[in-house]
Write a structure and sequence with these properties.
Elements: H1 2-21, E1 25-37, E2 46-55, E3 61-66, E4 71-76, E5 80-82, E6 88-90, E7 96-103, E8 117-126, E9 132-137, E10 140-146
Parallel strand pairs: 1-5
Antiparallel strand pairs: 1-2, 2-10, 3-4, 4-8, 5-8, 6-7, 7-8, 9-10
């Protein structure tokens, strides 16, 4: 019984050290791309947008919608930092009006130093209610808005 407990404790220590060595998650950039796609077998073009959040390492994210006004919220599962000067990205065309990087209210500002700050959410404000899908691919989290999906780049 003692041997199993020691192996478990060593495994936990290794896991904690491995996770810590990854370092904090940082958003490298956020890109928004207007997309028009014509899928095979259809004559109609569909419009949408892809918002790509590029991290320095893989980060799981979840999404949900809020209303009045309608917005899509992206919530990282890890503690995430950003170093952008602008926390609001305004867009002129397409179905995305603006993207906000919401600073955390927690007092962890000294962890990475300037210019980094912890964030809680990334909020996407479309011009109207749209369906969306979130997909993770390595260090990139993509949010597909409108009638497009992860194959839209191919058409």
């Amino acid at each position: 019984m003692k041997k199993a407990a020691i192996i478990f404790a060593v495994s936990l220590l290794f896991f904690a050290k491995t996770s810590y060595c990854e370092g904090p998650a940082i958003i490298n950039n956020i890109l928004c791309q207007k997309v028009e796609a014509q899928y095979p077998g259809t004559k109609e073009k569909v419009e949408g947008a892809i918002v790509r959040i590029n991290f320095n390492r893989p980060v799981e994210c979840v999404s949900y919608e809020i209303s009045d006004p309608y917005r899509i919220v992206i919530k990282p599962s890890d503690e995430v930092y950003a170093g952008f000067k602008e926390q609001k990205i305004e867009l002129d065309e397409g179905i995305v009006k603006e993207i906000h990087v919401i600073k955390s209210e927690t007092d962890t500002k000294a962890k990475l130093g300037e210019p980094f700050y912890p964030i809680d959410y990334i909020v996407i404000s479309p011009v109207s209610t749209v369906k969306h899908k979130i997909a993770q691919n390595g260090k990139v989290t993509s949010v597909y808005l409108g009638d497009i999906d992860e194959n839209a780049d191919k058409y």
